[in-house]
Amino acid sequence: xxxxxxxxxxxxxxxxxxxxxxxxxxxxxxxxxxxxxxxxxxxxxxxxxxxxxxxxxxxxxxxxxxxxxxxxxxxxxxxxxxxxxxxxxxxxxxxxxxxxxxxxxxxxxxxxxxxxxxxxxxxxxxxxxxxxxxxxxxxxxxxxxxxxxxxxxxxxxxxxxxxxxxxxxxxxxxxxxxxxxxxxxxxxxxxxxxxxxxxxxxxxxxxx
Length: 208
What we know:
Low-confidence stretches: 28-32
Radius of gyration: 74 Å
Largest sheet: none
């Protein structure tokens, strides 16, 4: 039991000594400037690689060539105006009916002889013979001659105006002049360390 206790105590003591020795600065540590830092534990290992140079930024793709604007369709040629129908030829006026032949007048009665005042009736004289009625000689006036002439229709001289000439010119697309952005400047050369590493001869091996 005593041996186990002593071994445990020795182990704890050794661990504490190791922790304290690691925490204390060594003679050749960076804290004891200007002394050089210790060489690597394994001298046969090469020095660490320098940091990788960052890749240059990707060259942006050139912008897409914009499609040329659509050529607008030319305006529709307007249809010529409809040819108006020629005016209707007016119908000739109706031929007026000839005037009615007037009926011949009725034969007038001869005027009545007025009765003489009544005298006492003398002896009746014989009546003289009646004068014969003259024959009726009526002549209807002849109808006037019909001389109607319809005016000729005016000549039709319609001319449709010619369509205006179409002189549309599409504007040429602007020339595309692409200029690639200049490449980025090269990265600055790494500055030398103010305190270059002076590789000394390997010190004696560490004792743990």
